[in-house]
Amino acid sequence: MDKYKTIPHGYMTVGEVARKMGITVRTLQHYDREGLLPPSAISEGGRRLYTDKDIVKLHQILSLKHLEFSLDDIKNRLIPLDTPAEIADVLQEQATAVKRKIESLSESLRELEVLREEVLQIQSVDFKKYADIIVNLQMKNDFYWLIKHFDDQTLDHIRSHFDQNSGMAFINTFMQLQDEAIKLQNAGIPADSDEGQHFAKAYWNMIMDFTGGDMSMLPRLYELGQFLNTNHKWKEIQDIANRYVEQALDFYFSHLGVDPFKEEIE
User: Fold this and answer.
1) Contact at 8 Å (CB) between 233 and 240?
2) Residues paired with 41 in a beta bridge
3) Full strand arrangement of the beta sheet holding 12-13
4) Which of 44, 84, 113, 208 is the most buried if burial means most Cβ atoms within 10 Å?
């Protein structure tokens, strides 16, 4: 009969706590065995007794568990809740963890939605491209959408010649040189001037960086420029830039006495 004696004021049985927090008695018993949440008292009849402070600790444990922390991690994160500052610190830590989780889930959702759109635009089942898109999304590469435009040969070439850092560096160089061509054209700088030829050399080095000396890749590089500038108005400006590039390269190769494009054809 001692087991059913009146519970002291301010205490709750394991069953009451379980119902209040929407968990099972077995879960509370497990947390007790693991040293996460021992009862604040034991009744004369041997019943586990909990207080409102235990409810706060339990909320902390359940929140961290929901964030996929292991029980060992949770045990190391638990601190005494004896002062307002300690309680506030715990709540702030949980809030920070929740924010990180939300950010992670939001990014995962964005990647899923983007991949879905890319799959629909590719209009064929191509898991190799899907995998490339996923990797580029995780790398935060804003040019992930280019992948769907390239054929297998081009993608194999890119995979074998560029890693994450060198790939992004190449695209940035490409865009910078395109912008420079527009500025030189608008400024009326002759393509055969020192400045124009300095630009031509930098542009040709960029081409060689992309092709690795394989001139058959040149059409793919041209396609890259077309894809990067899909805005119609901007494309008109890029056409002007490309005319300057062609003039500058013509003078550049004439000065060198070579024609790499003709040599490739022959």
Assistant:
1) no
2) 49
3) 12-13, 48-50, 41-42
4) 208
Query: How far is 27 from 216, CA to CA, in rounded Å?
Result: 66
The CA angle 69-23-39, to the nearest 5 degrees, is 85
Burial 61-87 (b: 16+ CB within 10 A, else e): bbbbbeeebeeeebeeeeeeeeeeeeb
User: What's the pLDDT tens digit per position in 83-110?
Assistant: 888 878 878 888 888 898 899 889 999 9
Classify residue 62 by its DSSP letter.
H
DSSP state of 147: G
Helix, strand, or coil (residue 13): strand
- Transcribe 19-59 into DSSP letters: HHHT--HHHHHHHHHTTSS--SEE-TTS-EEE-HHHHHHHH
**Three-state DSSP class for 12?**
strand
Beta carbons of 221 and 249 less than 8 angstroms apart: no
What's the pLDDT tens digit per position in 67-80?
A: 778 888 888 777 77
pLDDT band at 168 (very low <50, low <70, confident <90, very high): confident
Could you give the angle at the alpha carbon of 252 between the alpha carbons of 246 and 256, nearest 5°? 140
Token pair of 47, please? Answer: 């019943």
- Separation between Cα atoms, residue 86 and residue 80, nearest integer Å: 7
